[in-house]
Amino acid sequence: MTRRLLLAAFIVGAAVLAFIFWPRFEGAPSRPLAEEALVGEARQGGLTVALPEAVGNVEISDARLPGQPLVLIDPGHGGVDGGATGLGGRLVEKRLTLAMAREVRERLVERGRVRTALTRDGDDRLTLEQRAAIARRIGADLFVSIHMDSAPNPEAVGVTLYALSDVASSEEAADLAAAEARRIGPVVSTDDSLVEALLTDLALREQMEASHAFARRVLRRARGSVPLRPTPVQSANFHVLRRAQVPGILVEAGYLTNQADAERLAEAEGRATLVRALADAIEADLATRQAR
Ligand SMILES: [Zn+2]
Q1: One GO term of the cellular component aspect (predicted)?
Q2: Span from the CA of 117 to the centroid of ligand 1 (angstroms)
């Protein structure tokens, strides 16, 4: 009798599991096996990962030792989306974010403690969804999106570090997240929305806590050498951070509409202090999480 009950329970259980996981298998053809293998290899060392859709290929630079953690740096905007401008149109956000992302990568590669990739290494236009998808596909451990601000008030100056949270920390943070939401392109893969559905609430809480911890880490390194906003760490529900599904922050590196910030951000020399703070914080953050 008991055996029959056990058998019945087993059959019902198997049916339930099949029901839950069936859509995954149905979605499988959109993600060929070859790509899965590439992503697996990408975890081992430096190589180029071919990505589907209009994302292009992402180069992952090697660390000195194999299997080191991987940071994905995301230069904001690109292509027809230039972002903010400054100094009478001489400064364009998309160019400066790319320059700065490359500088952070250069420092990380020099030191060889972590592996590094950029969401774009040219003037490509990527949707926010595509940026987040790259983080998931290459198995990034940390995500850093670089932006530069603009404000009607030319006195607005300094760096803001935005972490991920459900509730915005200020009206300004809420506005920024809302502006971001208006820029979200089409969600390209149905496979990915399923992944998000499977992501538990607990994982999201952990992602948010790690995002805040990383923002504070950058702040500790930037304080004293970089001009900061009065409340330098803010938070809001940023689509790109949430969907990346790894801890990450959005860095607003300064105001292109402020004379001092614009001059600081225009040249590599001026950007160097923030670049150093970011690179050091990235290494420290990945080292602690790897040690756990
Ligand atoms: Zn921006």
Answers
A1: outer membrane-bounded periplasmic space
A2: 19
Q: How far is the CA of 94 from the centre of ligand 1 (A)?
A: 8
- Of 214, 209, 94, 218, the closest CA to residue 146 belongs to 94
CA distance 131 to 244: 8
Q: How far is the CA of 211 from the centre of ligand 1 (A)?
A: 19
Q: Give Cβ neighbours of residue 40 (< 8 Å, ≥ 6 apart).
A: none
pLDDT at 165 (0 to 100) = 95
- Second CATH level (architecture) for the domain 31-291: 3-Layer(aba) Sandwich (3.40)
What's the mean pLDDT when you consider all of the chain?
Answer: 84
> How far, in Å, from the CA of 147 to the mean position of ligand 1?
4
Which residue is listed with tokens 């930037």? Answer: 222
Cα torsion 157, 161, 163, 169 to 10°: value is -30
Ligand 1 centroid–CA 204 distance in Å is 24
- For ligand 1, the distance from its centroid to the CA atom of residue 266, given in whole angstroms, is 15
CA 40 / ligand 1 centre spacing (Å): 32
Q: What is the CA radius of gyration of the chain?
A: 21
Whether the predicted model's global pTM rises above the 0.90 cut:
no
Across the range 62-85, mean pLDDT stands at 94
Long-range contacts of 198-203 (CB under 8 A, 24+ apart): 199/245, 203/245
pLDDT score of 221? 97
| Ligand 1 center–CA 139 separation, angstroms | 24
Q: What is the pLDDT of residue 43?
A: 39
Q: In this predicted structure, what is the pLDDT of residue 196?
A: 58
Is the distance from CB of 130 to CB of 239 less than 8 angstroms?
no
Asked if the model's pLDDT at residue 45 lies above 90, the reply is no
Give the pLDDT score at 48.
60
Q: pLDDT class for 38, splitting at 50, 70, 90?
A: very low
pLDDT, position 170: 94
- What's the CA-to-centroid distance between 160 and ligand 1, angstroms? 12
